[in-house]
Amino acid sequence: MNKTLNAKQWPLILGASAALVLSACSGGGTEEPSAGPQSGETAKAASKAPAAPKAPAAPAMTAGQKNALGKAESYLSVSAFSRPGLIKQLEFEKYPTKDATWAVDHLKVNWKEQAAKKAKSYLDTSSFSHQGLVDQLVFEGFTAAEAEYGVTKAGL
Question: Is the whole model's pTM more than 0.85, yes or no?
Answer without folding.
Answer: no
